[in-house]
Amino acid sequence: MQTWTQTLSARARENWRDAFASAAAACIAWVVSFRLFGHTTPLFAAITAIICLAPALPSRGQQAVGLLIGVATGIVIGELALLLPPMEPLLRMGLATFVALLIASLLGLAPVVPIQAGISTVLLLSFGAEKAGIARMQDVVVGASVGLMFSQVLMTPNPVRLIDVAAKSLLQRLSKGFAQADAAISDRDRAKAEAATTLFTEAQSSLINLNSGINRARSLVRWTLRGRFVALQVREMAALYDRRAIRLYASALLFAESLEEALRTSSAPPPDGLRDRVAHVARLAAALAKDLDAARNDTFEASLPVAVPHGWEPCLDNLHAAEAALAALIAIRDR
């Protein structure tokens, strides 16, 4: 397990670029708003840039667009609320905020839309249209524009690489697991089989990263310019690994568990050819992570045992499922 220092270090490595970009965009938005509109304290421009680029956002482009829609909705509702007959100010604010939140939520967009709609209404009715109306909208447009420039052009990750790196990590870790299983079969060592199961179990994090990478790449295709340029490649890679990676991981883990069980309960030796097949799967997974041509040209012919010793049937069945999953990945990538 990771220590808390390792966890913090990993989070820092993951988020420092986003934090730096967010801070830089806030400063740029401040200067642009000051130069363009003469706003002496353009807080909302800087705040908007931060909201659009803060670390851990699933889609910065979507965040920027949603923020603009929410602020505009709140300002319009706030301006209309000022036209109502005289009433208690708190009642006016409550009614206007309710209407702004309700209308924004009807759009079915991200949570930032109703949040900003409600905030904009409260600010306008609290500070007046001169400070929180058009002036704030100008600042928000500047902040969102700077945020979009960063998210769409300057700091957009490569969607293809997001999927590729995560997929290679998964395949490499599975290859290490099969190599450990090969050693366990060679020595008929239960401890090594348990180590192989541990390696496969730990590979789940790579599978999770792959699924996250696919989802983020799809979001980048939808919401960024860079993503649109590689949309076809992203769709092909997502179709390749979606579900097949899960099937490969599940087969590998089941194989390791059945190998442990066979070594524990069966007095019979491993079936003939099992070790060669496991070594081949380890080699094939490693090759697929590095070089498709090497994986494609691996023409190993697995010898099937005539009679399978008692207790080893599940092990062979799960290994065959892993072989089939790898073969499917190679066949589809080869198209």
Q: Could you describe the 3D structure shown?
A:
With 335 residues, the protein is mainly alpha-helical. It folds into two domains: 16-154, no CATH class; 159-333, Four Helix Bundle (Hemerythrin (Met), subunit A) (Up-down Bundle). It is 80% helix and 0% strand. It has 16 helices and no strands. It has helices at residues 4-37, 43-53, 60-81, 89-106, 112-127, 129-132, 134-154, 159-187, 190-202, 204-223, 225-229, 231-241, 244-265, 274-290, 292-296, 313-333. α1 (4-37) packs antiparallel against α2 and α8 runs parallel beside α13. 39% of the residues are buried. The mean pLDDT is 86.
Question: What would a concise description of this structure say?
Answer:
By secondary structure, this protein is mainly α. The protein has helices at 4-37, 43-53, 60-81, 89-106, 112-127, 129-132, 134-154, 159-187, 190-202, 204-223, 225-229, 231-241, 244-265, 274-290, 292-296, 313-333.
